[in-house]
Specification:
Layout (H helix, E strand, L loop, with lengths): L4 H11 L3 H7 L4 H6 L4 E4 L2 E4 L12 H6 L16 E4 L7 H12 L4 E4 L4 E4 L5 H11 L9 E2 L3 H5 L7 H10 L4 E6 L14 E5 L4 H10 L3 E2 L1 E2 L11 H8 L5 E4 L10 E6 L2 E6 L5 H7 L2
Parallel strand pairs: 3-11, 4-11, 6-8, 7-12
Antiparallel strand pairs: 1-2, 4-5, 5-10, 6-9, 7-8, 12-13
């Protein structure tokens, strides 16, 4: 029959003469402190009763361990490794680097890549687990939709339910470039990507890395900015690492994008249009293109 807690307390104190044990505990590393008492042992960072004192070998509850005068030691949580930072040529991206990055996208991971404005978070927009991961990484409210990057006008058209004439005018005038066009989404676009609005934001960036990665992945990718929601957008891989280095598996370092403004966002519906966000493409240029 197991001995009473009081009896065990007395034996714990006797093994290091009570206060002498506590005094020694202040000087020694945690594992040494635990090893100093023959009634406790450090097993996987937890305090446990050792069999050689005759007690039941079981995990000591925190409250009971405190009553015995034993200082608890808990293993620190393992820190998540920072993102892998991989250099890539912005003008002529290496094929092996793009294949490596595309393999992450195929597994549902989120990768930071440079674009023609700022660094963006690339993921498979048709993989809902990957979409969830973007919201987690950014701390982004799910009420905000995720833009999608494409590598051609034809690819963009497949993601739209209808293609207004103004869409074609603006795409032909400013793509590839810093203009995002919002239209009714095709039924195949997940509602979660559209934030349940049924509208999708499309952009063909003027970026060889983005274009070639989309080709290697063989599909469009997300393109929301690579930053914590509410924090400044990142124009360099160094800035991305500071904000998101502990939340991503891979960052492609294509150097400084030189971006100071995000893309201009235009909402299109039928023959009507409106500016959602002013950005790198001036409103006056859009007005001229639509005349």
């Amino acid at each position: 029959m197991a001995r009473s807690e009081a009896a065990h307390r007395q034996e714990c104190l006797r093994c290091e003469n009570g206060s002498a044990f506590e005094a020694q505990a202040k000087k020694d590393p945690p594992l040494q402190r635990l090893a100093g008492c023959r009634n406790v042992g450090a097993r996987q960072g937890r305090c446990v009763l050792a069999e050689l004192c005759g007690s039941v070998a079981a995990v000591v509850r925190k409250s009971a361990a405190k009553r015995c005068g034993v200082l608890l030691h808990f293993a620190q949580k393992a820190k998540k490794l920072p993102a892998e930072l991989l250099r890539v040529d912005a003008q002529s991206p290496e094929a092996e680097v793009l294949r490596y990055a595309a393999s992450f996208l195929s597994r549902g991971s989120v990768v930071a890549i440079p674009t023609d404005t700022f660094y963006g978070l690339a993921a498979d927009p048709f993989n809902l687990a990957a979409v969830d991961e973007i919201y987690r990484v950014k701390g982004r409210p799910e009420a905000r939709a995720l833009p999608i990057l494409v590598r051609s006008l034809e690819q963009a058209v497949t993601l739209a339910r209808e293609v207004p004439q103004n869409f074609l005018k603006l795409a032909q005038e400013f793509w590839p470039g810093a203009l995002t066009l919002v239209v009714d989404a095709a039924t195949k676009v997940p509602l979660k990507v559209t934030a349940n609005t049924g509208k999708v934001a499309l952009r063909w960036p003027k970026s060889e890395i983005a274009r070639e990665l989309i080709a290697e992945f063989d599909g469009p990718i997300t393109g929301t900015s690579a930053n914590i929601s509410g924090f400044p957008s990142c124009a360099s891989a160094t800035q991305v690492m500071k904000q998101l280095g502990g939340r991503l598996p891979l960052v492609l370092d294509g150097g400084d994008t030189g971006g100071t403004l995000g893309s201009t966002i235009v909402d299109l519906h039928g023959g009507a249009w409106k500016i959602i966000r002013e950005g790198a493409v001036a409103v006056e240029r859009i007005e001229r293109a639509l005349k």
